[in-house]
Every structure is written in C-alpha cells, then in structure tokens.
C-alpha cells in the first residue's frame, strides 16, 4: 500500500506542481509585463511633460520677460510632476551641468553645486534620441529605478536633457506578493492532494488487498476464499468479479483433479488387485491347473480393461492439450457403416435390432480419427446399455449445412438428476443401468470434447424407456 500510495501521490503532486508552475509563471509574467508597460507609459508621459516644461523654462529664461517668479513656478511644476509619478526628475543643460533635481519632497536647484549629469547617459541620449535603463542612475539614487531620458530640443537645437526615474520597488513588491500567493496556493493544493490520494488509494487498495488475501489462501490449498465485491461498480468491481470467477474455476479444477485421482486410483486398483490375486493363486498352486485357463481369461480381460483406461486417458490428455485437428474430406456414411460392422458380433449375441437411417454418401471435412472415436463411443455406449432383444436406431442427415447424428437405444432410462453428469470424466452412471462395468468412464467425455472442438453441440435425452444422444457439427466443405 505504501508504494502504491507514494507512486500515486508523486504522480498527482508532480502534475499539480507542473500545472501551477506553468500557469503561475504565465500569470505572473503577464502581470509583470502589464505593470512594466504601465510604468513605461507613466515614464513616457512624465518625461514628455517634463521636456515641455523645461523647453518653456529655457525659452523664458533667455527672453526679456524673465523674472524670479517664473523660476519658482517652474520648480513648483516639476515638483508636482515628480509627486504625480512618485519619482525623481533630473534636468541638465547641453553642456551636461545638473540644473535641477525634483522629487516628491520638492524641486531643488543644483546650479551652484557644480554637479554634472552622467556623461555616459548623455552620450547615449544624444546619440539615440532617447534613453531607457533600469539602474540607480550612476549612484544618484539609492535603489533600482526605471530611468527614461529625453533630449530638450528648441527650434531644432538640443539645449538640454531630462531624465525621469521611477522606483522599481513597487513592481518587485507586486512580483513577490504574487509569488507568495502562488506558493501558498501550491502548498494548500498539495495538502488537499495528499488527503485525496490517501482516500482514493485506500479505496483502490482495499479490493486488491482482499484479492491478495484470497490468493494467499489459494497458495495454501484453500480454494473456497472469495474477494468481497466493492461498493462502486467500476473497473475494480469488474476485476473482482473476474477474480472470483477465476477462483471458482480453480476450485472446480481442483475438485476435478481430486476426483480424477480418486477415479483413476479406483479404476487401477480393482483390476490390478484381481490380476495380482489370480497370478499369485496360480503361482502358489491355490488355483488348480484345470482352472488356470479360466482365470487367465479373466486376467486377460482385466489387462484389456487397463489398456482401455490408459488409451482413454491418453486421448483425454491429447484433446485437453489443445492438439490441432487434422481435417480432411471423407465419407462419413461409410465410416459409420464400418463402425457398425465392428459391433456385428455383440449385436448378434444380444439379438439387438439395428435400424440404420443414413445417406448413401455424405462428405464432410473434419478430423477423421477424432470423429471416428466420437461415433464409436456413442455406438459402443448404446450397445452396452441396450438389453437383449432391444432396439438401436441410428439416424444421420445434412441439416442447414451441418451434419446431424442421432443414436437412440431402448432400455433403462438415465435419471433426470444424472443426465447433467453423463459427459463428465470417469462418470459411469447409475449402477442399475450400468450392468457392464468394463468401461473407463471416459468415452462420453472424449466424445463431447471432440464434438466441441469441431464447433458442434451434443446433448442427451432419456425417457419412456429410451435414451437418445444427438450431436451436430459443421460440414466444413
């Protein structure tokens, strides 16, 4: 659970952080760009007005109407302009002498101080026609400012320079505030993500833990364990259903395996015990020489019974291993006639009346050996369970591009509660019906498997002293 939780949280957190970084960076960048554009516009407006006032000031100062009040008015105007933009304005003449410094506190004349404007700034301004920089204006200011310079031009002649400076602290403070909000939001969302991940992971892991516990029970041999279904009908719900179905299949397979071992053990033990007993009797003289031939015939029959059981198990193994069919074209009517001829002696001994209703010729594409064995098993089953002077009817015909085969025999019925078991491995039916115990219990199972592998269906019905097996398979031509 810890690794799954850590993996989910890491993925969710990474996606959220990346999303916030991308969106936050784009948002802050846009806000800063807007704030910078606004500062640049304020600088441009303030420098334009400062140039206009300075041009008027220089013009009046050179004229005959100049008086001290005009100088006072100019300083008051520059003071108000500096207050409006919350910045500092530097005014100098063409020679580079610093004439005035205006800030929100006032406008002060610097003509008597002998200060000069930064020569580098003047050179760049007079060369390019404008000056823009972010600096402390060569030490004139105590902090970083956005600086914009404009030349003062009168009658086409440059007579001075104006530099307007606005503090960059406000924009930087806005950036820091937005960054703090962004970081706090990211931390808050990550915390919510942690809580949501815990809830989601627990709801996801619980069904998986239940399935893991059931799997551990399977490993210990207990196939009865099942995983409880989740409340939500989602993918985990479907997975749990599939897991429980798999568990049921495993339980059925285990029961079938145990049943197979028990049946094989029983079927092997009985003839082997008989063979061993009669052989020991012959060897130690218990069975007299005049009786040995009789008991040797019994031993021969038991050996044949073991051979049939071994052959049946080999056939089952071959079919269940998924060995590919070997289809070919052949006359199935001729195949049925050959099989019936093979039972002629048994039919004659029991005086069984056989009615054969099959086409003169019926071509089919199928696995010859597999279909031969399936039909042989059905006829053998019918002959064994038909009483003396009974009847067997074999019907075969083509129906909707499928071969239909029916075999019906008279005699004792199969109980309705036993019909569903007749195709199971090692099932030998009701003892009252099964007078002949020489079978291995694999014949009908092999028949069903062969028919199904050909894409066909097989079923049985029993009643009114009749039992009938029927199968259909595609003609495949």
The shape is: rod-shaped
Q: How many strands in all? A: 13
User: What structural class do you assign from the helix and strand content?
Assistant: alpha+beta
Number of domains: 3
Which key features would you list for this structure?
477 residues; alpha+beta; Beta-Lactamase; Helix Hairpins; Heat Shock Protein 90; 6-stranded antiparallel sheet; 5-stranded mixed sheet; 10 helices; 13 strands; 56% helix; rod-shaped
Overview of the molecule:
With 477 residues, the protein is α+β, with helices and mostly antiparallel strands. It has three domains: 2-172, Beta-Lactamase; 235-317, Signal transduction histidine kinase, dimerisation/phosphotransfer (DHp) domain (Helix Hairpins, Orthogonal Bundle), CATH 1.10.287.130; 327-474, Histidine kinase-like ATPase, C-terminal domain (Heat Shock Protein 90, 2-Layer Sandwich), CATH 3.30.565.10. Helices cover 56% and strands 19% of the residues. The protein is built from ten helices and 13 strands.
Gist?
The chain is an alpha+beta fold. The protein contains ten helices and 13 strands. The longest helix has 60 residues, at 2-61.
Write the layout of secondary structure elements.
Elements: H1 2-61, H2 68-85, E1 88-93, E2 98-103, E3 106-109, H3 119-128, E4 131-135, E5 145-154, E6 157-167, H4 169-219, H5 235-283, H6 289-320, E7 327-331, H7 332-342, H8 344-349, E8 353-357, E9 363-367, H9 368-385, E10 391-399, E11 402-410, H10 443-453, E12 457-463, E13 466-474
Parallel strand pairs: 8-10
Antiparallel strand pairs: 1-2, 1-6, 2-3, 4-5, 5-6, 7-9, 10-11, 11-13, 12-13
Helix pairs in contact: 1-2, 1-4, 4-5, 5-6, 6-10, 7-9, 9-10
């Amino acid at each position: 659970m810890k690794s799954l939780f850590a993996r989910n949280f890491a993925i969710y957190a990474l996606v959220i952080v990346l999303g916030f970084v991308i969106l936050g960076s784009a948002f802050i960048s846009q806000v800063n760009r807007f704030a910078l554009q606004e500062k640049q516009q304020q600088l441009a407006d303030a420098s334009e007005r400062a140039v206009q006032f300075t041009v008027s000031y220089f013009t009046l100062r050179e004229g005959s109407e100049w008086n001290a009040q005009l100088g006072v008015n100019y300083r008051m105007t520059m003071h108000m302009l500096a207050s409006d933009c919350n910045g500092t304005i530097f005014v100098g003449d063409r020679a580079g002498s610093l004439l005035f410094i205006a800030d929100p506190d006032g406008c002060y004349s610097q003509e008597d101080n002998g200060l000069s404007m930064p020569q580098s700034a003047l050179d760049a301004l007079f060369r390019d026609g404008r000056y823009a920089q972010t600096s402390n204006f060569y030490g004139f200011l105590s902090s970083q400012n956005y600086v914009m310079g404009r030349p003062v031009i009168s009658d086409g002649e440059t007579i001075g320079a104006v530099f307007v400076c606005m503090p960059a602290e406000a924009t930087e403070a806005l950036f820091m505030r937005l960054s703090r909000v962004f970081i706090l939001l990211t931390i808050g969302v990550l915390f919510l993500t942690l809580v949501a991940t815990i809830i989601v992971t627990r709801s996801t892991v619980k069904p998986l833990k239940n399935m893991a516990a059931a799997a551990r029970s399977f490993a210990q041999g207990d196939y009865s364990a099942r995983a409880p279904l989740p409340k939500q009908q989602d993918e985990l719900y479907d997975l749990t259903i599939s897991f429980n179905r798999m568990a049921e299949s495993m339980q059925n397979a285990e029961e079938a395996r145990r049943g197979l071992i028990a049946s094989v053990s029983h079927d092997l033990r009985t003839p082997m015990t008989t063979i061993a007993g009669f052989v020991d009797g012959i060897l130690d003289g218990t069975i007299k020489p005049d009786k040995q031939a009789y008991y040797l015939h019994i031993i021969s029959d038991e050996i044949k019974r073991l051979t049939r059981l071994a052959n049946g198990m080999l056939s089952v193994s071959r079919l269940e291993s998924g060995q590919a069919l070997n289809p070919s074209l052949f006359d199935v009517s001729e195949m049925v006639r050959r099989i019936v001829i093979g039972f002629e002696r048994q039919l004659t001994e029991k005086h069984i009346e056989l009615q054969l209703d099959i086409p003169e010729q019926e071509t089919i594409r199928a696995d010859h050996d597999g279909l031969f064995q399936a039909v042989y098993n059905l006829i053998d089953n019918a002959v064994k369970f038909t009483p003396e002077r009974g009847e067997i009817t074999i019907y075969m015909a083509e129906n909707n591009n499928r071969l239909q085969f029916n075999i019906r025999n008279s005699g004792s019925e199969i109980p309705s509660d036993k019909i569903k078991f007749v195709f199971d491995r090692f099932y030998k039916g009701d003892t009252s019906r099964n007078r002949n115990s020489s079978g291995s219990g694999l014949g009908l199972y092999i028949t069903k498997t062969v028919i199904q592998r050909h894409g066909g269906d097989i079923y049985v019905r029993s009643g009114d002293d009749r039992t009938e097996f029927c199968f259909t398979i595609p003609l495949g031509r």
